[in-house]
Specification:
There is one protein chain. This protein has a six-stranded mixed beta sheet with strand order 2-1-3-4-6-5. With 177 residues, the chain is α/β, with parallel strands linked by helices. It is globular, with a radius of gyration of 15 Å. It has a single domain, classed as Vaccinia Virus protein VP39 (Rossmann fold, 3-Layer(aba) Sandwich), CATH 3.40.50.
Length: 177
């Protein structure tokens, strides 16, 4: 495994299959529309990376002046890592990461974020199953696990907002200092 490997080829195929077979898979970002738009307005962002964007549902609510930069390894046309930008979102993605690549993914998110990163993480099992029979949420862990992982993989940061919702979801807004 390379030091910066983010996903296996086998898992890319499984994710692509799940996106193809489930029309609502990869569309959860819309649930966070108000938070994302508030961050865009508050910090006057002009660009946004959508890390693990799935079906790119964020495009449906972004203002026209925002340069939307999608990234998802399951889709060949958007599987190249973008250059760092001021604002990065990663919604309902981290719990899907193969555990052996989680640190690499978090370090990459840290590197690609210049100012603000908004993360949402499910802390429970998913309703969807992968083609190999595993739950689509490969990492089901608690809030403290995720905070420790962020602490170990992010540099020069401060969590400026944390929402812990019914032991099921963790929303974090991270300021890069």
């Amino acid at each position: 495994m390379g030091a910066n490997k983010l996903i296996s080829k086998k898992y890319i195929k499984m994710n692509h299959q799940l996106h193809e077979s489930k029309t609502n898979y990869g569309k959860s970002t819309v649930k966070y529309k108000d938070i994302i738009l508030n961050l865009i307005n508050k910090y006057n962002f002009k660009t946004m990376i959508d890390y693990g964007c799935g079906k790119q549902s964020a495009k449906s609510f972004l203002p026209d002046y925002i340069k939307y930069i999608p990234y998802d390894p399951a889709f060949e046309e958007i599987n190249k890592l973008p250059e760092p930008e001021d604002f990065l979102i990663c919604t309902d993605v981290l719990e899907h990461i193969e555990p052996e690549f989680l640190d690499n993914v978090l370090k990459t998110i840290n590197e690609k974020t210049k100012k603000i990163c908004f993360l949402t993480i499910a802390l429970r099992s998913a309703s969807k199953i992968l083609s190999d029979g595993r739950n689509a949420h490969l990492i089901v862990e608690n809030r403290l696990f995720w905070l420790k992982k962020i602490n170990n993989n992010f540099t020069n940061y401060k969590i400026i907002n944390e929402e812990y919702l019914e032991n099921q979801f963790l929303n974090l807004t991270i300021l890069k200092e």
